[in-house]
Amino acid sequence: MNNSISQNKKIFLLIAVAYAFSVICRLEWVWWASSFNEFIYNGNLIINSHDGYAFAEGARDMLAGFHQEGDLSYYGSPLSTIAFLIVKFSPFSLESVMLYLSAALSSLIVVPLILIGKNLGTLRAGFCSALIACIANSYYNRTMVGYFDTDMLNIVLACFIIWGLVRLNIYKDILSALIASLSMLIYFWWYSSSFTLNIALIAMFLFYTLIFARNEKINYLTMILMLLAITSIDLWLKILLFIIILFLYKSKFYQLSKRQNAIIIALGAVIFTIFALSGGLNPIWFQLKFYILRSVPEKDTLNFIFFNVNQTIQESSIIPFSIFSERISSSVSVFLLSSVGYALAVFRHKILLLSLPMCALGFLALFSGLRFTIYAVPFMAFGFGFLLEILGCMLNERIKNKKPFWYAFILISFVPALYFWYLQEQIGQFVWEFWLYLALFLLVFLWVFFRKDLGAQMIFAACMLALMPSFLHIYTYKIKSVFFNSEVSALESFKNIASREDYALSWWDYGYPIRFYSDVKTLIDGGKHLGSDNFAVSFALTKPQRSSANIARLEVEYTQRNLHENFGLNLAKIMKDYNASDVNEFLLSLNNENFTLPKKTRDIYYVLPDRMHYIIPTISRFSDIDLKTGRSYASGLFMLNEGLNKSERGIELGDGAYLDKTLNFLNISGKKLAINTFISTEYKDAKLNAHYSKIDERAWIYVIYMNDYNRLLILDKSMFESAFIQLFVLENYDKKLFEPVILTPLMKIYRLKV
Ligand code: MN
After folding, report:
1. Residue 485 alpha carbon to ligand 1 centre in Å
2. How many CB atoms lie within 10 A of CB 534?
3. Contacts of 195 (CB under 8 A, 6+ apart)
4. How far is the CA of 507 from the centre of ligand 1 (A)?
5. Which of 297-301, 307-311, 610-614, 689-693 has the lowest mean pLDDT?
6. How many angstroms separate the alpha carbon of residue 551 from the centre of ligand 1?
7. b vs e for 88-108, b when ≥16 Cβ sit within 10 Å of the residue's Cβ?
8. 519 C-alpha to center of ligand 1: Å?
9. In angstroms, what is the span from residue 523 Cα to ligand 1's centroid?
10. 109 closest CA partner among 470, 375, 467
11. pLDDT score, position 300
12. Residue 612 C-alpha to ligand 1 middle, in angstroms?
């Protein structure tokens, strides 16, 4: 009894240490970002994940108690709900929850890993894997401070399910069955796309049971509960069924029955029927399709072919092995050792077969993009810990003279600490959480090295070494906040100008943050950006002002109508209403001054952040397309050059191209290209002035030098005339169509007058 209490204390301590370690490592970004004023708004760091604003908007609306029809708010979504509850019942502000919740929840991954280690009798492997997993590259990237996203629990909950099943395999008790099935219930509620993984876990457990534990009735009961957990029925009904099943299982009727098998089978049949009837058998791989089948053009009933957004998502492109393994284990060598250890662990503990679906999902990344690697993190880390455990035991058995090893392991343990000391010494700047890390390190170090367990000492030393690449990654992976504080304050002032029913027209990257700060509607956002969604916005940003204004008004009014009329694609309905049959002709006609627009029901604002400059080529691709054939047009010329490199002959543009010092022509691969107009813009007394020098009327190239940004733009006529360039870069807006609302160097907002 006493033994198990001290064992529990030890496990609690290990969990506390690993959890603290995980949180402390995540503070590095806070420390770094806090030194930049631009990242701080109202005393809080601005978060760094665009999607985070979707959940934040949902939480904000839940706190307010309302939201608008068709505003795409994540009102009631699980993460928004949790944030809402925390803000409502704790002293924390929404801003700090958005910032720190990911670190607090994602660090819980150490709990199931350590407990799995304990249950398998390899506690040290569990502890070691917890340290490795909690800051492995892809896990860190998607759960760092300020990354307000469902990822913070996606891996944690999956690990809890597996821990429940590992525990069940040993204790064969109801508690384990509940840990597994309730974790699955929460997981499915938290992230409905976890359905596929959950199905795979159940299938794997069935497979395992049929082969290795055919007569364990509680395994079948657990499967039934797990299936119930991912059935799409009302939550209360689900919980009621849970209670009924457990009650039945505990009842004398079942316990004394001679036909227990029949009862279990009948129960399984009932739950399976409910599961099937509620749509559970719909193709389970459906969710992965989007990422697996790439470059399939989007088709509509009218046979418009839009630009396929997959072609621009970097996350879903094929990745090389080294990046793949670094994302899973932070370095190729740790990854390879982990693979060996994982194979050994599964061989030794067959129950770990259950982790196979997670690793398989992670390995899908090799074929379908790096967003999946995160799933392989925890059990590959466990493999690494397991390998060390085996080596540690061998060391303890074989080595008689322990002293030299003892010294060697002490030395190795200190390598990372010394290395980082050296790094900081070099820069002359000590990171404050380094001291926290050091304190934690010394604590565990003393604990490990004043006991006679050479194996543990080796494990500790190796673990420290294996963590170095992760430390380096955290140290160099410094991503910026989504917006700078001046942009946020522009959006906050915009909130006071626009009404909640008005629309902000901007690129999808900025959709969620704009909605969070300004509480308006948007046409596209991080969850709505198919080629067909993006087309109109791309068109509005990169075509001339008249066409831009017309399509913006059409798209907004039809998007609103579509909420009730459900007519499918806006463009198809618009063309039908305008009696147009040729889409290209129709789009051309938008530039016509006499184009009649539908009745205006609300205001539309163009929200143009300066940072949109960098993605204009991507944006334009979505409307530089022949919708009839899906063939892309050559996009307009848009070259952006910053931090200008001046030479004797002029300004170097890279690849041997240069702008002649006379500013009269460009030289690109030996060819002289005449310039139509050279324009230089400059702020004077907080007002933008543009100075035009006409050079050659017949030429098709325009050059704009933006003095305050030290930025040179080289454009062709079509790009030069685009709404974005005219409104943002030159502030040369058509007074009949637009009216400036907020004009700051980093964010410009115009109201559409038509
Ligand atoms: Mn709203």
Report:
1. 22
2. 24
3. 188, 230, 284, 287
4. 18
5. 297-301
6. 23
7. eeeeeebbbbbbbbbbbbbbb
8. 5
9. 13
10. 375
11. 47
12. 23
Residue from 679, 682, 691 nearest 715 by CA: 679
Distance from Cα 141 to the centre of ligand 1, integer Å:
29
Q: Residue 663 CA to chain centroid, in angstroms?
A: 44
**Cα 480 to middle of ligand 1, angstroms:** 26
Separation of CA 57 and ligand 1 centre (Å): 8
Contacts of 185 by beta carbon, 8 Å cutoff, 6+ apart: 229, 230, 238, 242
Kindly give the distance from the C-alpha atom of residue 220 to the centroid of ligand 1, in angstroms, as a whole number. 46
CB proximity list for 689: less than 8 A, separation 6 or greater = 681, 682, 683
Which tokens hold the place of 113? 């890993």
270-306: burial string, b at 16+ Cβ within 10 Å, e else:
ebbebbeeeebeeeeeeebeebeeeeeebeeeeebbb
> Does residue 339 contact residue 383 with C-beta atoms inside 8 Å?
yes
Residues 711 and 227: their CA atoms lie apart, in Å, by: 58
Lowest mean pLDDT among 86-100, 290-304, 445-459: 290-304
Q: Which structure tokens are listed for 728?
A: 């943002």
- Residue 428 vs residue 576, higher pLDDT: 576
Percent of all residues in the chain with a pLDDT value above 90, rounded to a whole number:
77
Cα–Cα distance for residue pair 505/510, rounded to 1 Å: 10
Instruction: Tell how far the Cα of 655 is from the centroid of ligand 1, in angstroms.
Output: 47
Of the CA atoms within 13 Å of residue 111, those in its CB half-sphere come to 14
Distance between CA 140 and CA 119 in Å, rounded? 26
- Cα separation, 170 vs 163, in Å, equals 11
Tokens of 714: 């080289």
Average pLDDT over residues 634-655: 87
3-state secondary structure of 370: helix
Mean pLDDT of 569-585: 94
The whole-angstrom separation of Cα 358 and Cα 336 is 17
C-beta of residue 714 within 8 angstroms of C-beta of residue 654: no
Top pLDDT among 723 and 31 is at 723
Euclidean distance between the first and final Cα of the chain, in Å?
79
**pLDDT of the residue at 633:** 87
pLDDT at position 307: 81
Query: DSSP of 546-594, one letter per residue?
Result: HHHHHHHHHHHHHHHHHHHH--S-HHHHHHHHTT---HHHHHHHTT-TT
- State the DSSP H helix or E strand holding residue 72, giving kind and residue range, or none if neither: none
How many Å lie between the centroid of ligand 1 and the Cα of residue 512? Answer: 11
What is the b/e burial string over 627-645, where b = at least 16 CB atoms within 10 angstroms of the residue's CB? beebeeeebbbbbebeeee
pLDDT digits (tens, 9 = 90+) for 313-341: 555 556 788 999 999 999 999 999 999 99
Closest C-alpha among 111, 248, 215, 251 to residue 167? 111
CA of 80 to the centre of ligand 1 (A): 14
Report how far ligand 1's centroid is from the alpha carbon of 500 (Å): 6
